Amino acid sequence: MTGDAHHLLPSATPVTLIGIDGHPVADSGRTFPSDADLRRALASLITARRLNDQAYALVRQGRLAVYPSSHGQEACQVAAAQVLDDGDWLFPTYRDTVAAVGRGVDPVEALTLLKGDWHCGWDPYEHRVAPHATPLATQLPHAVGVAHAARLRGEPTVVMALCGDGGTSEGDFHEALNFAAVLRAPVVFLIQNNEYAISVPLARQTAAPSLAYKGIGYGIPGERVDGNDVAALLTVLGEAVARARDGEGPQLVEAHTYRMQAHTNADDATRYRTDAEVEAWVERDPITRLTRHLDLPAAEMAAMADEAEQVAAHLRDGLNRDIEPDPARLFADVYATPTPQLREQQAQLADELAREGALG
Amino acid sequence: MTHEKLTMAQALNRALRDAMAEDDTVVVFGEDVGALGGVFRVTDGLTAEFGEDRCFDTPLAESGIVGVAVGMAMNGMRPVVEMQFDAFAYPAFEQIVSHVAKMRNRTRGRVALPMVIRIPYAGGIGGVEHHCDSSESYYAHTPGLHVVAPSTPGDAYTLLRESIASPDPVVFLEPKKLYWAKEEVQLTPVSSSGRAMEGRETEARLTPASSSGRAVEGHETEAHLTPASSSGRAVAGHEAEARLTPVSSIGRAVVRREGTDATLIAYGPSVPVALEAAEVADREGRSLQVVDLRSIVPFDDETVCAAVRSTGRAVVVAEASGFASVSSEIVARVTERCFHSLAAPIRRVSGFDIPYPPPKYEHLHLPGVDRILDAVDDLQWEES
Ligand SMILES: Cc1ncc(C[n+]2csc(CCOP(=O)(O)OP(=O)(O)O)c2C)c(N)n1
Ligand SMILES: [Mg+2]
């Protein structure tokens, strides 16, 4: 054990590779992602934004119960998905629909829960995306467990575990970091610091210089990255994933971003922040920035917009289909084999519905 | 005494304000309770009115919230903490079960914890997972905790005032689907004298439940609030206890509707459903009495058993899963006490023994009027 913690310290300012004006930042000292990677990221970002806005609209039309939008945070989620290999895992929160879609989850499946149909709409094993967690930070120890099991099984898996700034205050966050460090589990913890936990600003959440410092006490290196710069995210997260895969243990990355919309459509953000504060983040928009930087021909941009439009249409169609709840589903999958009591209750419900049907 | 038409959320807000105004050891904290006023606006305006020291947002950690409340209660304060939703109280479970519930016992009565844990609870609002749990059994099963659940704005006000004044910790369950229900509420006058005990005698009138004058003292309640000593130190435990008027809504069930054929026993979110079932039954020629527990712990055996004996038949209605639940406890204890008055076994209508289902399935799960009336039909009527 060494007393020197310097290698664990994050940089004083977040890593940025592309400035707001779209130009590369001079002397970043970091690897710049390839053009192909950036183009892929731009296409994903455009689709992600379209999905966020489509989902928001679907709430207004009553097709979704609620939607926690990641409008403005798409770069974090796109990069988190893009740096993973097929065999890796993603552990998302309720705000990370776009990251799950980035892993290949069908957007309609990704929003099944919020549509009110079932708790998790996708098969977690299919794309190696865990069911998204709503109880804050509770998914993080699971991520450590999956990573540790992979190591024991000799698999080269890395786990990307997502969490919000507010979630870092929960005990599970700290236990997960400590376990990961002690077990040297290949986990990358990505904190999307969007400045708010519902109404509570970061300043009330922590007195630390930055959330990236949360790793130090556990022996985990922390990095800070501009969460609206997808190039910086691809580099920082990509390198963190590579280190974890190489057996260097867990990594902590804090992405500085901003929640451009209310917590969910049910929230009234005017009660706790000013429009001016939100406006100030508009110029830092991740899509504008990357679009400026790549400066692609109009035809290529149009193709990306088309692709996004198709995904949005698919989402609309999927969510506009009405659900006919299957009563038997209520009792399925509570246990591997239903208890006698559940079978009795299922029969009771079937009987009620049959009598109702006979009346109607 | 003032009268106002208030929603349950507003009545709770008034209870907090009045308690904070009367006693400056009352402090409110939790997630988003400050500027936002809580996600259900129950703490709306409290920070503005009383300042950040009296109502404040905490870091996002339920175990921390409850644990810090324990310490504050040990040191002369009366914390009222908010868990944002039922299922988000679980990180605090260790603190609640191992410390909140046991402090008095572990210290041979030396350390009392006059604190309230407010929890918006239960379903019926189309909420997604983790926002609809009926978690009362966990708390009711833990000795040392009082557990209450109002079903009307009037009771919400009175029960919260009494919970804050209580020398024991109270788990205060607020049925989410009733937050917006409105009724005329009689508010306890706020003493102007401030700290003097004499000035704090308060009278809280509950919403009258029946006109027939059934023996339910809980109709009219007098609650004396616990004083804070002038030094601000914890007097909470012992002294306060002696001064609390024994007759209060905590521990008192109330008959919400008179009836002669069978008794529906309900609490919290199930009370309006039971009342609706009684209304429908009435049209079908059957007279159902409805008892609202209000308080799960302490449990009012006297009122509940008197009611059941008067009709000889009973159905317990509760949203929570039935297995090993508050509803099974009610059936057990009422059967033990009223066996010879019963014409039929007591029936239960509860949620199924499944995780709370998604919104589109909720209506199949929750006890509804038809399911209640089916159970009533099953109470062996042939001889009558
Ligand atoms: C254990 C727990 N407590 C409370 C909540 C209620 N809640 C949902 S989201 C949220 C804020 C989370 O903030 P943050 O972690 O910053 O994530 P963001 O919503 O900003 O993405 C709260 C308090 C919850 N989901 N889980
Ligand atoms: Mg946040």
Automatic annotation (TrEMBL), chain A:
Domain of life: Bacteria
Cofactor(s) it depends on: thiamine diphosphate
Family named by the database record: Belongs to the BCKDHA family.
EC nos: 1.2.4.4
SUPFAM superfamilies per record: Thiamin diphosphate-binding fold (THDP-binding)
Catalytic activity, reaction form: N(6)-[(R)-lipoyl]-L-lysyl-[protein] + 3-methyl-2-oxobutanoate + H(+) = N(6)-[(R)-S(8)-2-methylpropanoyldihydrolipoyl]-L-lysyl-[protein] + CO2
Protein's organism: Paractinoplanes ovalisporus
Identification of the protein by name: 2-oxoisovalerate dehydrogenase subunit alpha
Signal peptide residues on this chain, from the entry's feature table: none
Protein task: The branched-chain alpha-keto dehydrogenase complex catalyzes the overall conversion of alpha-keto acids to acyl-CoA and CO(2). It contains multiple copies of three enzymatic components: branched-chain alpha-keto acid decarboxylase (E1), lipoamide acyltransferase (E2) and lipoamide dehydrogenase (E3).
Keyword Nucleus in record: no
Keywords: Oxidoreductase, Pyruvate, Thiamine pyrophosphate
Domain Dehydrogenase E1 component as annotated: residue spans: 48-294
